[in-house]
């Protein structure tokens, strides 16, 4: 009788035979398909379940979670897989105090909403506000904070007016003319008013060019009489004129 002896190398060679490799590959494919099928089945079942929870994230001061929930509820009251994420995001961003938002599905049945709230910067016109990005929005009057500056201008000029106000208010903060409001009309005329209610008439030139006049000659002449001043007209090349609260006082024009 002849004995059959198989070495480790022989076993390795057999394991690496074409037939054996094909069987291993087939088994791997079957296992992979099984996993994909199970996962797809779970997703399919999950996509047909109702939305169970709305998860709201963000640092909210003026926005209310109840308002966000109310805006989303008509859109999420459906199967989880049928949720329109873009429509849900637009609904949240339509709330006055929302700066931007993101909406995503979290399996198996949660909708996660991340919200970034607006920071109010100034009044804009009669009823609206500007946020810190110079975008117009209109919250309820009861939610408007106190102490905001008053800005106004043509549609599309929001960013220019806001930036000019930032510049001027910084340069005039420590002067006799601390700025509280700034406007630009349709003709390009700039006007401002101070915290004491003094009107500043800048004209069509860059208002920043008049800062030196205000902090120099105008302040020297008027700093002890500011309660008498109604307006300072800066629409002169080398001077300014003053309108007084008492109409009996005549306007005066001062040079540099």
TrEMBL record:
Residue span(s) of domain POTRA: 49-118
Q: What is its main location?
A: membrane
One Pfam family assigned to this protein is FtsQ_DivIB_C
Its localization reads: Cell inner membrane; Membrane
Transmembrane regions = 23-43
A GO CC annotation recorded here is: plasma membrane
Query: Mind listing the UniProt keywords for this protein, alphabetically?
Result: Cell cycle, Cell division, Cell inner membrane, Cell membrane, Membrane, Transmembrane, Transmembrane helix
Q: Which InterPro entries match?
A: Cell_div_FtsQ/DivIB_C, FtsQ, FtsQ_C_sf, POTRA, POTRA_FtsQ_type
Q: Which PROSITE patterns does this chain map to?
A: POTRA
User: What membrane topology was assigned to this protein in its record?
Assistant: Single-pass type II membrane protein
PANTHER family per the UniProt record, alphabetical:
CELL DIVISION PROTEIN FTSQ
Tell me, what does this protein do in biology? Essential cell division protein. May link together the upstream cell division proteins, which are predominantly cytoplasmic, with the downstream cell division proteins, which are predominantly periplasmic. May control correct divisome assembly.
HAMAP family reported in the protein's UniProt record? FtsQ_subfam
Family that this chain belongs to = Belongs to the FtsQ/DivIB family. FtsQ subfamily.
The protein's assembly and partners: Part of a complex composed of FtsB, FtsL and FtsQ.
This chain belongs to the protein called: Cell division protein FtsQ
The species this protein belongs to is Solimonas terrae
Which gene codes for it?
A: ftsQ
